[in-house]
Amino acid sequence: MKTHRRGKAEKSPVQHVSQLIVTLMFAMLLVYLPTKTIAMTHSNNTLIPAPSTITLGDGFFHFNSQTALVANTDVLAVLPQEVREWLLVKHGLLLRQSQHDAVSDNMIAVAIDQSMAAEAYSIRVNESGAYIKASTAAGFYYAYQSLRQLSVNSSEQTVAVPFLSLTDQPRYRWRGMMLDVSRHFYDVEFIKRYLDLLALHKMNVFHWHLTDDQGWRIEIKAYPKLTSIGGFRDQTVVGHTSDRNPHYDGIPHGGFYTQQQIRDVVAYAEQKNIMVVPEIDLPGHTSALLEAYPEFGCLKKDYKVQTRFGIFVDVLCPTEATMAMVDTIVEEVAGLFPGEYLHIGGDEVKTDHWRDCPACQQLMQDEKLANLRQIQGYFVKRIAITAAKYDKKIIGWDEVLEGDVDRSTTIMSWQGMAGGITAAKAGHDVIMTPVSHVYFDFYQSTSLDTPQAIHGYTPLSKVYQFDLTPAELTDEEASFILGGQGNVWTEYLPTEEAVELAVLPRMTALAEAMWSQAENKSWDDFSRRLPRFLQRLENRKYHISQARFKPAASMQANMDGTITLSLSIDSPHHDIYYWTDDSGFKRYQQPITVSEKTTLHATGVDKNARHPEEAKHYGHEIITVEPHKAMLKPVSYLHNPEVTGNPLEGQLLVNGMLSTDRIFQYHEWGGFDSKGMDAVIDLGQSTLISTARLGFDAGSHRRLYKPTNIEILISDDQQQWQSIAVLDQAEIDALDKVATLSWDALKTRYIRVRAENDNIDFSAEDKREIPMTIHIDEIVVH
C-alpha cells in the first residue's frame, strides 16, 4: 500500500517489544526448521508470499553447532533463562560479540537497520553465512519465516540455506484473518493453532469475533451471566438454517474464554507479531446478551440464545442504562487487548423493536434523528466516545456508514468494495473484506461431495485475484486502504478440522494478495510454489482442502439453440476427465457444444496418472443442460420484475441449465415472495407445445419450500389467457424436485407459468410466522 500518509517509521499494528530482545529471539527461532526434507528448485523462488526481490545462487550455506550467532552482549544479558537454555543447550550455537570477537565465516549475523520500513527485512546468504537486517521485531520475525521456508535439512546436525539475496516488505499493513467463535466454540489450543497458521502466512491481525446471537464467549466480570447464561444454547439447527421444516440436534452447545485465557492468547499472538482485535457485536446480534440481561432490550419478553442462524430482531435499547453497561464491557475488554482497535460490529441491525419503543421515539425527538436507522449511528457514536476513553479506535462493518459516523471510525467493507470506496473517499481508514472474494465459509467447490456451506462459491483462483485497492480511488484516497482480511463465519463449520479445510489453501492465496506487490503476483507462479508450501502445513498436521483438484462447470446458451459446456480446474497438476450417459471416460480438452438434453459428469485426475480411469478421482461435478423452445426467449415477471437473471447468459429461468441436481446456489434459482411467480414467456411466434417443467428443490444441502399451486396458461395476444394445466398442493407435495405439466399439443405465442406461494412458517429471526420464499429452477418448454 501507499505509505506516504503515515510515514516510513510508523509501527505495524502490533505493539513491539524491545527490538534488541526480539532480534535475539528471532535468531533463536531461526534454528527451528521443518522436520522433513523438501526438494527445492534452485533457479526459482519458492516463497509464499512472493517477496519484493529475490536472487538465488547455486550453493547452500550449512549451519550447525559450530556456527556463530553474532549478537550484542547486552541483549544476551536480558534473554530469559528458558530461551537461553533452549538456544545454547538444545541447539548449541556459539554466541559471539561482533565488535569484540570478530567472526569472518560460519555465522548468522543479525543487525538492526533503522532506515528500513517497520515490517521490511533483508537476507543475504553466501559461503560465509547468513546476514539478516530489519528495523523492528516484525521485520526480523518475517525474515525468520522466510528462512524457515527456504531451508532444508541436510542431516540430523546441519541445516542448509540456499545462497540468495532477498529484500521484502508487505504491500499492506493490515493483513488479517477473522474467526467467529460464537456460532461454534473452539478451545484455546485451537486458537493458538490458528494463530500459528497466521504467522506462517506473515499475517499480523487476528480478528476474534467473540459475541453474537448464538453465544457470548468472553468473560465480563461485572456481568457474569453473559457467559453463564449467554455462553450456552440449548441445541443447534441441523442442515441449513433456511431449510423448510427445520429440525435440531438436541445437544447443548457452548463455552467461553476466561480473562486469563484471553491474556494468554494475546501474549501468544504478540510473540508472533499478531495483533488481536476483539469484536463485541453491538447493538444488533445481541440475543445471547439479552437472554442474560433482558432489561437492556426495548421490549419485555423472553429472549433466548439462538439455536438457528441468521439476522434476528433482538437489539439493544439505546437508554442510558444500556450505555453504562456498554461502558463497563468496553472497559474490561480494553484492559485485555493492548492493540489500538475494538470492533463493535454494527451490521445487520433490525429496527423493529426500536419502532415499537417509546424511549426510542423520545430519543429520536431529542437527538433530532430523522429515522430509525439513525439510531444505529447514534449507538456507534456513543460507543466510539466510550472506546476513546480507554484509548481504543472502533471498527464497524460497512452498515455503520448508514449513520453519521465520525471519521475516526475504521470501516470494514464486507458487502462488496462499494462501502470501502465510499469510506475512503470520506476519509475513513478502510479494511477490505468483500463477501465476493474473502468469505471462507462459502463453497470452494461445486462438486457434489463438497461439505455443506452457507452459500456462495469462492474458489482458490478467485481469492488470488482479490485486488484490495479499487482503481477508482485517487492516490490520496487509496492511502486510506489499510489492507484486508479473510472472514471465517462458522455456522456450518462445527469442528476445528472443518475450519482448517475451509481456510486452506484459500488463506494462502489471500496472504500473497495482501503481502506481495502487484507486479510480483502471478497465478501460474503461485500455483507452482503452492505444493511445497502446503507440504509444510501438512507436516504440521493441518487439514487442507482438495477443492482445487476438483473441476467446475459452466455453460453458455447460444442463439442457434445449442448450449456450450466448459470445465475448469484450479490445479495445473491435474487434468479434467468427463463422461455423459452416451460417452465414456474422456480427457477434457475444449468446450463441448450440445443440441439436446445432456448431463455432464466431471472429475479431476493427477496428470501423472498412467490409468486415469482407475486413478484417484477428485470431486464429482455435475451439470445438466437442456435446449428447449423457451430457451433465451424474453420473459416478463409480473410480480417480481427484478428476477431477470444474468443478461450475458440469457434470462435466469430460461437459460437452459437445470440446477435441481447441483449444490444450491442462489444465483442459479429465481426467488419469489408470497406473491409467487407469474412469468410470461414470449416464444416469438406461434409454436406447438405440449409440456412445461420446472424445478423447485435442490439436489444437495438444501430443502427448499415448494410452490403450493402451479398453473400453465397460453395466449396469442396477452389479453385473453387459456388455462391448460394445473397442479394443486397435494399433487406437488407428492413430487420430488421437479413438476411436469402436460396437455394435448397446442399452438401459442405466449406461455404463462404461475406458481403460487402460500407457504407460511415460523421465523426464528422475526419471532413470528411469516411468508416464506420459494425458489424456481429452469422453466423447460417442449
UniProtKB/TrEMBL annotation:
Q: Which EC class is this protein assigned?
A: hydrolase
One Pfam match, given by its short name, reads Fn3_assoc
- List residues traversing the bilayer: 12-33
Ranges of residues in domain Glycoside hydrolase family 20 catalytic: 172-517
Q: Which domain of life is it from?
A: Bacteria
Q: Taking every annotated instance into account, which residue ranges of this chain make up the domain Beta-hexosaminidase bacterial type N-terminal?
A: 46-168
| UniProt entry keywords in alphabetical sequence | Glycosidase, Hydrolase, Membrane, Transmembrane, Transmembrane helix
Q: Enumerate the InterPro entries for this protein.
A: Beta_hexosaminidase_sua/sub, Fn3_assoc_repeat, GH, Glyco_hydro_20_cat, Hex-like_dom2, HEX_bac_N
Tell me the Gene3D superfamilies matching this sequence.
Answer: Chitobiase/beta-hexosaminidase domain 2-like, Galactose-binding domain-like, Glycosidases
> What residue spans carry the Basic and acidic residues bias annotation?
607-619
Q: Which reaction does it catalyse?
A: Hydrolysis of terminal non-reducing N-acetyl-D-hexosamine residues in N-acetyl-beta-D-hexosaminides
- In short, the EC number is 3.2.1.52
Instruction: Using the UniProt annotation, give all residue ranges assigned to the region (Disordered).
Output: 600-619
The entry assigns this protein to a family as follows:
Belongs to the glycosyl hydrolase 20 family.
Q: What is this protein called?
A: beta-N-acetylhexosaminidase
The protein's organism comes out as Sinobacterium norvegicum
Taxonomic lineage is: Bacteria, Pseudomonadati, Pseudomonadota, Gammaproteobacteria, Cellvibrionales
